[in-house]
Amino acid sequence: NKNNILNLGVVILGLFIAFQIYKGIEEQMNSLVQQKDNELKKNEAAEEIAGLEKKIDGYKKVFVKKDLGAVINTMSAIAKKCAVKVVSIKPDGEEARADYIKLSFSITISAPDYHALGNFVSQIESYQDVFLVDEVKISSAISAWAAEGADKELKINLKISTISYL
């Protein structure tokens, strides 16, 4: 009888110790599973950041520092294509921001009609480099009720900006 009770006590003690070990290992497993999930979320965030960095690098190539002469030549070429005469182009200054520089130009053009003006503005804003038309001032050389034989071209002052990434 004593042996049976002692054996039963040893078995119960062994089961208790095994249960405590199992409980500790189960907590460690749950902790490791949770840590693994956190690491997977971090990896997803890191991959997303890497993708965004690639996009930023692509935009940096678009927003490179532009040469003044090249910008003026581009505007002149677009004007020629749109049947608009460039009267004057002059730099209007740089506006430095935290991550980019906004370079503005005042351009005076002469257009035969509003269609040519609209075509010019459309070509400027859809050009492969980034150009923004910030301001447009239109004046007619003569009034609409003036003589038929007079020159009816429109005189337009535009403020056009381009952006360069730092």
Distance between the termini: 90 Å
Radius of gyration, CA atoms, in whole angstroms: 37 Å
Helix content: 40-55%
Low-confidence regions: none
Average pLDDT, rounded to a whole number, is 84
**Share of β-strand residues:** 25-35%
In DSSP terms (H or I, runs of 4 or more residues), the helix count works out at 3
Order of helices and strands: HHEEHEE
Q: Tally of extended strands?
A: 4
Name the strands of the widest sheet in spatial order: 1-2-4-3
User: What is the general shape?
Assistant: rod-shaped
User: The biggest beta sheet, please?
Assistant: 4 strands, antiparallel
Secondary-structure-based class equals alpha+beta
Structural account:
This protein has 166 residues and is α+β, with helices and mostly antiparallel strands. 52% of the residues lie in helices and 28% in strands. It has helices at residues 2-62, 68-81, 114-125, and strands at residues 85-96, 100-111, 131-140, 154-165. The chain has a 4-stranded antiparallel β-sheet with strand order 1-2-4-3. Strand 1 (85-96) and strand 2 (100-111) form a beta hairpin. The protein is rod-shaped and about 125 Å long.
